[in-house]
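Technical note accompanying the year-one report. For the benefit of new consortium partners, we illustrate the data format agreed upon in the data management plan: each record pairs a sequence with a structure-token string. No post-processing was applied to the example shown here.
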Amino acid sequence: MEPQRPDINPGDAGERDTLVVAISSRALFDLGESHELFERDGIDAFARYQIAREDELLAPGIAFPLVQKLLHLNRAAPQAPRVEVILLSRNSADTGLRIFNSIEHYGLDIARAAFTRGAPTTPYVHAFGADLFLSANPDSVAQALAAGIAAATILPSKAPQRQSDQLRIAFDGDAVLFGDESERISEEAGIAAFHRNESERAQEPLSGGPFRSFLDALHRLQDAFPSEASPIRTALVTARSAPAHKRVILTLRDWGVRIDEALFLGGRPKGPFLEAFGADIFFDDSTVNVESARQHVATGHVPRRSTRAAT
């Protein structure tokens, strides 16, 4: 069993209900050019480049619109549990000044950060008590998942054409919200064996996957708003179809969590459906599915446990 995220130990009781999202600087801002320089010429050249340009604003990155909407929730309903975004960066504090200058310019309410000057940031994901970690670095994501934290690698993606004031988050089912036991049956014994297993065990709740704790935290936040006027909308977008749908529905009912939309696609490409939903971000473990999704919406790859163990 993977270790679970520890409870936050805040200075005041209100922080216990805070939804904490940790994000890397490369997911928040477009640092592609400077990262290429770092990879090619090393940390000293990178530092000179960033310091020389610290008054030049960084362009928004893939996860920037998501962060804007998350932080806007604090203004939309002050009585609801708060959302906090933590910045994690392998920059030094010196070279990270450009990042904070950009945060200030865009009016992002991000006050807490960790700058590690090239060292892994993952230990601070755990220390900040993050419910979710988004990074452009697959190794950092794998380490966070191994520590029991919901995490995903933010991929180069296309912004959705359909814009909404709501925060819209979509999840895959097996190996993301749920464990991967049923998915392994499909891979090892075929789709007929998978459907037979799901029909026979329809009344048995699925195990929780790496994003169950994040879904729980998101549900607590959603619960603070009336259903008809909620600024948050969620969707399950799964390759499952009937008869494998029943176990999913009963599992979510058993967990007592809210999913606003459920799309059972039976293997259809997910990208067009995610665009129709208007997802601000979608999480999936399948490389085929994330390749389809990222052509339409911001996409986070959640590597499978077996894949992480091999890396």
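Partners are asked to follow this layout when depositing records. Residues 227 and 260 are 9 Å apart (CA to CA).
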